């Protein structure tokens, strides 16, 4: 009997970890540093899906799972979509483990603790966790392979990315695929089904053709979750139920669920009220060459450039953010939905020479041409720093496409 639900399983994790003996391996499962809904939910859900599998094969529990929310505890409230989804799934957010929790930092830093690391939604440890390299045993991702942790290979290295595009719009699709191979599974736990479905819909923009994110694999995962989840067990308050469930079928309405989550994430008031610093760090990733050279940062922001730069103290926040993040080049990728289509812009801020070389590369190189960037304006921020504003013609070019182009420029 597998009474453990997604939410009760997660609630039990801190106690499981407290109870580990010297012989037990702690499997840390974590998403990427941007810590978006996909990163958070793929880590939590993979942990539970593994638990279901382990229960089936009746192996001894020599490994305990430690799913991590890969951001600081106080930052979850900034991830509105993920936060809402966890609430709807009945997950107690307080009992989750976060990047800055001592439970994690102690285990990560203590060489005597037996441990392994599974990366979801990224395939290269963030720079300040590189010391965990030797412990990485598994990768489940849909970003371009950065060819790191090369001791992880074969079945353990699942990277759904090929030729400039992701083969799955969401890591949660890959988690669902693992669930689909579990032959003994009779139905999918309601909280798990809702969490996975919600993220896949967010990441593929409800399989929008214009956005070009969703693939056949995402479609299959969506169909599987819709059909096999025990939706009747979902405990929702009446207001939310009215918003996301179809009252005739008692199944989630895909478009309503998607819109509800999307609106929470894009809420213009939420973004307008936010400090510039928070807008930059809410969905931020740092990149560097294989040799650790030429680092740059990319922040995804759900506001137009015009509104973003009009925030009070924007450029002061940018300069101090870049200093803290230790990068002298920062790209801000903005997106706004207009008529169900993403509209994208890029604001490049950096040391004059570097920003200009990068601008030149983005405007003229073959590799960058598919992004269809058109330079609008260049402006000095101070004696050393310049900002360059572009409109981006290609609505499909998100960070997943822009980052490899900038990395390849080696400028
Ligand atoms: Mn993802």
TrEMBL record:
Q: Which SMART domains match?
A: DHHA2 (SM01131)
- Could you state one GO cellular component term attached to this entry? cytoplasm
Coiled coil feature spans: none
Alphabetized, the UniProt keywords read: Hydrolase, Manganese, Metal-binding
Q: Which domain of life is it from?
A: Eukaryota
Which cofactors does this protein require? Mn(2+)
One Pfam family for this entry, by name? DHH
The molecular function terms in GO held by this entry are:
exopolyphosphatase activity; metal ion binding
Instruction: Show where the DHHA2 domain sits.
Output: 258-407
Report whether Metal-binding shows up as a keyword of the record.
yes
- This one is known as DHHA2 domain-containing protein
Q: Which organism is it from?
A: Chaetoceros tenuissimus
């Amino acid at each position: 009997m597998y009474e453990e639900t997604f939410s009760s399983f997660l609630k039990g994790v801190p106690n499981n970890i407290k109870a580990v003996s010297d012989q037990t391996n702690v499997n840390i499962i974590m998403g990427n540093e941007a810590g978006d809904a996909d990163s958070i939910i793929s880590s939590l859900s993979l942990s539970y899906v593994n638990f279901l599998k382990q229960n089936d094969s009746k192996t001894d529990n020599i490994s305990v799972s430690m799913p991590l929310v890969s951001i600081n505890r106080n930052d979850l409230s900034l991830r509105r979509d993920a936060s809402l989804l966890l609430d709807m799934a009945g997950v107690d957010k307080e009992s989750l483990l976060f990047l800055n929790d001592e439970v994690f930092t102690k285990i990560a830093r203590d060489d005597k603790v037996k441990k392994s690391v599974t990366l979801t939604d990224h395939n290269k440890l963030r720079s300040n966790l590189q010391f965990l390299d030797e412990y990485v045993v598994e990768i489940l991702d849909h970003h371009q392979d950065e060819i790191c942790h090369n001791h992880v290979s074969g079945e353990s290295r699942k990277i759904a990315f090929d030729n400039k595009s992701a083969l799955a719009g969401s890591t949660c699709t890959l988690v669902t695929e693992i669930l689909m191979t579990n032959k003994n599974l009779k139905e999918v736990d309601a909280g798990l089904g809702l969490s996975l479905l919600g993220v896949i819909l967010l990441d593929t923009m409800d399989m929008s053709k214009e956005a070009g994110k969703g693939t056949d694999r995402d479609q299959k995962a969506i169909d599987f979750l819709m059909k096999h989840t025990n939706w009747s067990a979902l405990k929702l308050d009446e207001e939310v139920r009215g918003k996301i469930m179809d009252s005739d079928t008692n199944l989630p309405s895909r478009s309503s669920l998607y819109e509800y989550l999307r609106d929470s994430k894009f809420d213009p008031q939420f973004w307008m009220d936010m400090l510039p610093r928070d807008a930059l760090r809410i969905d931020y990733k740092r990149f560097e060459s294989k040799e650790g050279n030429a680092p740059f940062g990319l922040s995804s922001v759900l506001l137009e450039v015009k509104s973003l730069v009009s925030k009070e103290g924007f450029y002061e926040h940018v300069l101090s953010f870049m200093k803290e993040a230790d990068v002298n080049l920062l790209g801000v990728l903005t997106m706004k939905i207009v008529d169900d289509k993403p509209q994208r812009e890029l604001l490049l801020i950096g040391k004059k020479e570097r920003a200009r070389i990068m601008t030149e590369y983005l405007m003229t190189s073959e590799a960058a041409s598919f992004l269809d960037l058109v330079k609008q304006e260049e402006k000095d921020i101070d004696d050393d720093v310049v900002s360059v504003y572009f409109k981006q013609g290609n609505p499909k070019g998100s960070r997943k496409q822009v980052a490899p182009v900038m990395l390849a420029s080696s400028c």
